[in-house]
Amino acid sequence: MTPVRSAPAGRPGVYHVPVLLEPVLVLLGNAETVLDCTLGGGGHSAALVEHGARVTGIDRDPRALAAARERLGDAERAGRFRALLGNYADLETAGLARVEQFDGILLDLGVSSHQFDDPGRGFTFREGAPLDMRMGDDAVLDAAGLLNSIDEVDLSALLRNFADEPRAARMAREIVRRRERRAFATADDLVDAIRAVLGPRSGPPDFARIFQGVRIAVNDELAGLERALPALRDRLTPEGVLAVISYHSGEDRIVKHAFRDWSRACTCPPRHPMCVCGGVALGEVLTRRAIVADSAEVHDNARARSARLRAWRRGA
Question: Structure pTM?
């Protein structure tokens, strides 16, 4: 990969500080057209436009879309940027033409800095914050509604699979017991339930992990990602690149396996003596290992700590 010139990585107070910006620009630097599927406040899109690309940004959050359009107003007026309201897992509902393809596609999964920092959005475990966590109006339930209605078995599975919680069954039982006395409404209710199970020594890392798992369920994030990846792959032009930044082991696993499967020519069983499927690889993995943030970026932006970037290129 050839080096690229530096681009602005974001400023204090800006809606969205883009994570892993430099490697994203390396991977997508030659793209003339880019689809930014998780626009946020437009941090990555602004850098890609400055780098010469025409960018289409999609986000399910109207407030994020408004912030990005303000930030990229000059580019939008010049025809180098457009913003669409919708969910990347269902591109056509966002008004994207079925035949439209892109040289580069970017997914920056998770919550933007502004969403997390706004206590009214309910992504944080700050005292008194509402249990909301919806990324957009298309979410069926907010976090409070989910925690107050989901049955114990499904709640246990949610905590085990999305929050990597070894005491998921006990925590689900505790949440159900508490909501029978009083419905969950604020972050304090969930934090108190976590402490009751994990003990008084539990702290922010535990809260963050559990809250992330609930947020993933509220927004149907893993299932949406699984649905979206093949559709995004098919939106690439020949030799186009799909880059995905994930923040959760489940997300990263889905991306890693999809990229691996698309890059495999033969799909015959491993012990088959010879290939009979005649398969052809759809493309190649560009990142042998996930790219992670260096210490300087983590120092400047703590949320980069768990970011993992993988990329795949479609065949010619």
Answer: 0.84
For residue 8, what pLDDT is reported?
A: 37
Q: What percent of the chain has pLDDT over 90?
A: 66
CA 178 to chain centre: 31
Mean pLDDT in residue range 94-117? 81
306, 187, 203, 245 alpha-carbon torsion, rounded to 10°: 0
Domain 140-218 top-level CATH class = mainly alpha
Class of domain 21-114+221-314: alpha beta
- Number of helical H runs and strand E runs in the chain: 13, 7
Cβ count near 256 (within 10 Å):
18
- In single-letter form, the type of residue at position 190 comes to L
**From CA 256, how far away is CA 150, in angstroms rounded?**
30
Domain ranges of the chain: 21-114+221-314, 140-218
> What's the distance, Cα to Cα, between the start and end of the chain in Å?
18
What letter does residue 54 receive in the DSSP assignment? E
